[in-house]
Amino acid sequence: MTKQEEICTRLDELEEEDGFLDLYTVVSTAKNPNDILHQYFTWDDTKAAHEHRKAQARALIRSVHYVEKTTKIRLDVPKYVQAHHETHRPGYQSLDRVLQEKKYIDDTLNDELKRAQGNLKRALIVASTLNIRERLKQALALVIDALKSTA
């Protein structure tokens, strides 16, 4: 059995116990050094706290949005997007900076399209698994129509 299969089996077992899988249960279970999930967590509290603070910083950065008002629609646009900087350090840039440094516009758009593609692919897989692929196609058609009407 692969590691991924072992993780999946263990998570399935936890879900089976309560009919629901939540983060608290996974972490609580993983605290046991003998549990298969234990090795996938950082148990050094100093390192874990630092990683948690970085995740909080990511969430904080992603929480800031522009509000673009037009006569027809209101757009809630992220203020910060993943950065494309020469240092190749992971980080974020404001859309204002992307607009100032035109060389980042294509990379930023490509990132957003990749993210959308990944989300649509996931939705298709979920819809197929739930046998509601046709419903997804109908919903996507509505999205495309809405996009056309706002252009």
Kindly list the characteristics that best describe this protein:
151 residues, mainly alpha, two-stranded antiparallel ribbon, two-stranded antiparallel sheet, 6 helices, 11% strand
SSE inventory with pairings:
Layout (H helix, E strand, L loop, with lengths): L2 H16 L4 H8 L14 H19 L1 E5 L4 E5 L1 E3 L9 E3 H6 L4 H25 L3 H18 L1
Antiparallel strand pairs: 1-2, 3-4
Provide a count of the helices.
6
Average pLDDT confidence is: 85
Give the termini separation: 50 Å
What are the secondary-structure elements, in order, as H or E? Answer: HHHEEEEHHH
* Number of structural units classed as domains: 2
Range of strand content: 5-15%
Write out the strand line-up for the largest beta sheet, numbering strands in chain order.
1-2
Structural class: mainly alpha
Molecular shape: extended
Radius of gyration: 21 Å
Number of strands: 4
Q: Unreliable runs, pLDDT <50, ≥5 residues?
A: none
Mind summarizing the main beta sheet? Answer: 2 strands, antiparallel
- Estimated helix fraction: 55-70%
Report on this structure.
By secondary structure, this protein is mostly helical. It contains 6 helices and 4 strands, in the order αααββββααα. The strands form 2 sheets. It has a two-stranded antiparallel ribbon with strand order 1-2. A two-stranded antiparallel sheet has the order 3-4. The longest helix has 25 residues, at 105-129. The radius of gyration is 21 Å and the shape is extended. The mean pLDDT is 85.
